[in-house]
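Z., the sequence and structure:
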Amino acid sequence: MGISSSWMRVAETIGADAFLALWRIADSDPAFRAGGAMERGYLQLRLRPWRSWERFQRNRYIETLAASGMSPSDIQAAVKLNLLEHISERHISTLMKRRSGGAAKSIRKDGDDDGGSQ
């Protein structure tokens, strides 16, 4: 039938039944036929890069740590230790502000609230 080696690896990884279910769903959904793909004899599957998923998960991890009261510097250390990724304290603070819907209050290392000044 001529299935590419990439799709064969997917089928081997997730199992033949799951692969066939994915294929059947994709074939029946008009969203996978965008851009005239079916006219050229194939379905168009679009996925974001894997790195997008990793970044999403990292950011949820940072939010969880921030919600537990950790400081940006402690979060930075935890991310480096547990995810083997360097991220600046400034970026962590930006993520914390974005998720809180405004200015994030930071907690000094001694545990006192500094009123949001960084």
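DSSP finds five helices and no strands in the chain. The chain has a mean pLDDT of 81.

Let me know what you think.
H.
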